[in-house]
Amino acid sequence: MTRAATRPSAAVPRHRSQARAAPRPGRILAVTLLALGGIVMVMPFVYMLATSLKDNSEIFELSLWPRHPTLDNYAQVLGASGFPRWFFNSLLVAAVTTGSVLFFDSLVGYTLAKFRFCGRPAVFVAILSTLMVPTEMLVLPWYTMSKAMGWLDTYWGLLFPGLMTGFGTFLMKQFFESVPDELIEAGRIDGLNEFEIWWRICLPLVGPALSALAIFVFLGNWTAFLWPLIAVADTRMYTLPVGLASFSSELQTEWGLIMAGAAVATMPTLVVFVLLQKYIVRGIMLAGLKV
Amino acid sequence: MVPARLSLSARRALWAWAFLAVPIVFYVTIRLYPAVDAFVMSFTNWNIVGTRAFNGLDNYLRLFGDPRFWTVLRNTFVYLGAGLVVSMGLAFAVAYHLDKVRFGHGFLRALYFVPHITTAVAMAWVWRWFYQPVPVGLFNDLLVAVGLPQQPFLRSTGQALFAILAPAVWAGIGFQIVIFLAGLKAIPAHYYEAAALDGAGPWRVLFEITLPLLRPTVVFLTVTSSIAYLRIFDYVYAMTLGTGGPLDSTKPIVLMIFETAFKNFEMGYAAAQTVVLFLILLAISLLQLRLMDRRP
């Protein structure tokens, strides 16, 4: 009570009473267990990095700190194998796909949210129905289509299935629906055409949704495995996950090299995560609760 | 006045169709036509080079008479059942306690979440390494260090499936935790305040307030996670070198589809398998709609 009197802000409960009601020793135990669990969760990364930095003499030791840290494994992985090319392929496919998805999903989402025209419900239902069909079912026709058109072993063949997504379209539609119509009217009075209204007025207002979508799509394509495994047979056209799978299967027991390869594939996502953690988590919450 | 409005709405409709032109071509040729094509393919006998010959329900009859299909289906549902129960239980336990922690909340959440965004193939190889026999593998080294016998893990038909499921749960749990946290945060504080005034203990609060109000979150996660486990592929492929072994003991339906289509090139037979997978996923989605409709 005295504290509340001297510091008025303390009178306002800042946390839920539920949080304060928990018994103290239980809380300490819970936090300790949570922290231990968290350490267990990141142990595979720690071991991956530690082993990738060890030379062959200490690779079977469980120590987390290499006695003679060396970048030999990385030099070998990046020098003698297809990794640089695979890295570039993955980056290119993920970047182009992300750009295309952001543009088209937000354009279609906007059109479905803000335009009233004959045929709109049909378009809506058609796109909605594509959400029901799993990729596994589509890869067979995609493959036969690619074979007939000569798209196998090309960048276009790798990326064409992901150029637009039903998920992103509905996510963006939800967000555009909350943009007030008055803004669109104002843009029209200012003499902007419909494309400019979307591009210059509405798009900047849904920035958080766009950035969440960008992160999902980029990470999803960076880690994609099934379609690239099917669409590409030429080793130079492999993406990182496909390249890593074949590289590791060939080496089998060269664990230092395999861990360095795994680290090369994982590092960009870890960097993206550390930099954008807040946006990623917020984006997942946003999308998970909206869709 | 009226003609002007009409022309405006007509102009807007033109713009709308202009915006939709390229996407419509995409969705029709890349999403809808292939879906129909897969159905049609499932009623044909086709080894990709020859012509498609319709064979009615032969692929489905062959599939239901194929003991490998039932093994694979059983494996798939073991992944689903065990994966769902363990991951949802762990994720809720973590989220429930993490929700009450203020100090280091974001950091702890990051530790749990980070496996979710990493490349499955890369982490599959890290785990494959953990499962190796002494002196290579971490797990067996630890077992031996505390005086327990070595385990075969990936080499055993009894253990391999669960050895593959473990990293899949490890990778998926971060997503579930984040969604649970969002759901917990959305529960209005006054429910808890009222419960505290009534002197309700933590277990009663959990079972009579938190869990019932969390129902939409639980339904959403159950469905998305079920679909993910039914479609398990990356971890199995990478950890078993593409075989689904030993002796098909870890092979899920997606790997069977992959083999049938792209190793044996029996496209019609593979298409029938994808239709079965589609129907299972559809049933789960419809179940979600029904569960979402029923309000507590």
Description:
The complex is a heterodimer of chains A (291) and B (296). Helices cover 73% and strands 0% of the residues of chain A. The longest helix of chain A has 36 residues. Chain A starts with a helix and ends with a helix. In chain A, 38% of the residues are buried. Chain B is globular and about 75 Å long. Chain B contains 13 helices and 2 strands, in the order αββαααααααααααα. The longest helix of chain B has 40 residues. The mean pLDDT of chain B is 91. Chain B starts with a helix and ends with a helix.
Task: Give a brief rundown of this model.
The complex is a heterodimer of chains A (291) and B (296). By secondary structure, chain A is an all-alpha fold. Chain A has helices at residues 2-6, 17-21, 24-52, 72-80, 83-114, 120-130, 135-149, 155-159, 166-177, 181-189, 194-202, 207-222, 226-231, 240-251, 255-290.
Blueprint (SSEs and pairs):
The complex is a heterodimer of chains A (291) and B (296).
Chain A: H1 2-6, H2 17-21, H3 24-52, H4 72-80, H5 83-114, H6 120-130, H7 135-149, H8 155-159, H9 166-177, H10 181-189, H11 194-202, H12 207-222, H13 226-231, H14 240-251, H15 255-290
Helix pairs in contact in A: 3-15, 4-15, 5-9, 5-12, 10-11, 12-15, 14-15
Chain B: H1 2-41, E1 44-45, E2 53-54, H2 58-64, H3 67-98, H4 105-113, H5 120-130, H6 138-145, H7 160-185, H8 189-197, H9 202-213, H10 215-230, H11 234-239, H12 253-262, H13 267-293
Antiparallel strand pairs in B: 1-2
What general outline of chain B do the C-alpha atoms trace?
globular
CATH superfamily of the largest domain in chain A: MetI-like
The largest pleated sheet of chain A is described as: none
Side-by-side strand order of the widest sheet of chain B: 1-2
Number of domains of chain A: 2
In which range does the helix fraction of chain A lie? over 70%
Into which percentage range does the β-strand content of chain B fall? under 5%
- On the 0 to 100 scale, the average pLDDT of chain B is 91
CATH class of the largest domain in chain A: Mainly Alpha
Q: How many β-strand runs of chain B? A: 2
The separation of the N and C termini of chain B measures 51 Å
Which structural class should the secondary elements of chain B be placed in?
mainly alpha
For the record, the CATH architecture of the largest domain in chain A stands as: Orthogonal Bundle
Return the domain count of chain B.
2
Low-confidence runs of at least 5 consecutive residues of chain B: none
Q: What is the percentage of strand-forming residues of chain A?
A: under 5%
User: From the 3D coordinates, which CATH architecture of the largest domain in chain B would you assign?
Assistant: Orthogonal Bundle
At the fold tier of CATH, the topology name of the largest domain in chain A is MetI-like fold
- Count of β-strands of chain A: 0
